[in-house]
């Protein structure tokens, strides 16, 4: 989930010209050009945010009815990873707060009033996905998370699409490793050993599946109520067959060496 850390650096992704870089699909470029001229518009998310107050809001508040949607292709592009969910009368989501806002989306803390459970929902603008030519990346993020089952990975709950936004719902963790470190100042050695062991275990698990995360940082490592790590934000992750390599420079600028950030070396 791109941009879910509490202290966000600027994320960057620059496709190199080498073989193996991002694939520029013609029909994606066509949609990118079509929507590049669309100005700022009032989104369902903005209305959802303004109306939050102290009330539970039906999912209908997020988007207008499907009959008012502009073009079927704007739905089909994001299928099947982002299905269209029928409006269920009992399903209500109440915004409890803003978790983070990054270049790839906004993360909200929400209460599912029907389940009486708290979740984190990442909201991504469809137009931005097409303008930045990250449709393949966005769908692969969901595909990867659906196939991961590990105690130290932030679990994926549900995904769906609305008129203008994509929604990715996950379990909620109250803090991340960076915020915890900032609060306590210094971790005891026994905690560092535990954190390191859990992080190595989950990275080895991902690499055995041919998955590279590509944005491992303290902000993307959540801490659950029992003190265990949960690796999150698979927005830059991808499958990589054994023996191959990726040629895309990506990650968070503040965590890159100066030479790497400037030249990709």
From TrEMBL:
InterPro entries: Kinase-like_dom_sf, Prot_kinase_dom, Ser/Thr_kinase_AS
Span of domain Protein kinase: 93-265
Keyword Nucleotide-binding: yes
Alphabetical UniProt keywords: ATP-binding, Kinase, Nucleotide-binding, Serine/threonine-protein kinase, Transferase
GO-annotated molecular function: ATP binding; protein serine/threonine kinase activity
Pfam families per UniProt: Pkinase
Keyword Nucleus applies: no
PANTHER family, per database record: G PROTEIN-COUPLED RECEPTOR KINASE/RIBOSOMAL PROTEIN S6 KINASE, RIBOSOMAL PROTEIN S6 KINASE-RELATED PROTEIN
Protein name per the record: Ribosomal protein S6 kinase related
Native source organism of the sequence: Cavia porcellus
Gene, per the UniProt record: RSKR
